[in-house]
Amino acid sequence: MIDLSTWNLSIPEGSPAVTIETPRLAQGFKNEYFHADTGTLFFWSPVTGSKTANAIYPRSELRETYSNGTLRNWLYSAADNQLRATLAVNQVPSTGKIVIGQIHTKDSTSPMVKLEYQYKTKTSTGNIVAKVRMRPDDEEGQVIIVATGVKLDRNFTYMIHLSPKGALGISAAGFNWRTTIDPSWKDKPLYFKAGVYVQDNTGYTTEGGKVTFSQLEILHKI
Predict the structure, then answer these.
(1) Beta strands 125-132; 142-150: pairing state
(2) Closest CA to 56 of 3, 14, 114, 17
(3) Which residues contact 93 (CB under 8 A, 6 or more apart)?
(4) Which helix (H) or strand (E) holds 146?
(5) 97 phi-psi bin (left φ>0, alpha ψ -120 to 50, beta other)
(6) 46 preceded by cis ω (within 30°)?
């Protein structure tokens, strides 16, 4: 079973969207947008779902916490930080784009890293694309195609790794990409997110993003 004791969950209902706090999530919360009772994590977010404050797209997405439910934020220099996941993308919206993992920034709407699955109708496969802001004040980040040819309903693994010295590594579907972020990130509190953040907000109620995780873990090695 995947350990949910250090996450909370945002689901696309309510106004603004509801957060399921860590204790309730760990006790077996389930509804149409999320369940974990089969040993895997199922996420569903329709394009018509409600949104979190300041967001333009809906999501069914986990956010890193401590086990008591307090939000966990960390400085990258304090540990070796990893987010690892194995998952299959089961459905995408008409834009073809969903976010499946992030390093987000506390009190900001602009994450350091967004890892997207981008489906191409022409090839019936998806690319794994990293959007990386090298500095906190970057308006537009780098866009890197990490992997190609990833089919729907096919398991693949990703890892986002940020070392105490600012070395950022992103691996997905057997491919790797590396860089070093600017030291101006050093005093910015960060946190991991994972799930399905749909990059679309128009369409029928049956349109959206659907993802199944069979592995998900966070490591902060000191």
Answers:
(1) antiparallel
(2) 17
(3) 47, 198, 199, 200, 203, 207, 208, 209
(4) strand 142-150
(5) beta
(6) no
User: Residue for token digits 């491919």?
Assistant: 175
Domains of the chain are: 7-221 (2.60.120.200)
Cβ atoms of 134 and 145 closer than 8 Å: no
Q: How many CB atoms lie within 10 A of CB 32?
A: 12
Longest CA span, the chain = 47
Could you give the CA distance from residue 201 to residue 41 in angstroms, rounded to a whole number? 23
Other residues' Cβ atoms within 10 Å of the Cβ of residue 99: 24
pLDDT digits 0-9 by tens, 96-113: 999 999 999 999 999 999
Give tens-digit pLDDT for 133-151: 999 999 889 999 999 999 9
Give the span between the Cα atoms of 58 and 47, in whole angstroms: 6
For residues 195-212, one letter each, b for 16 or more C-beta atoms within 10 angstroms of the residue's C-beta and e for the rest, the string is: bbbbbbbeeeeebbbbbb
> For a pLDDT cut of 90, what percent of the chain falls above it?
96
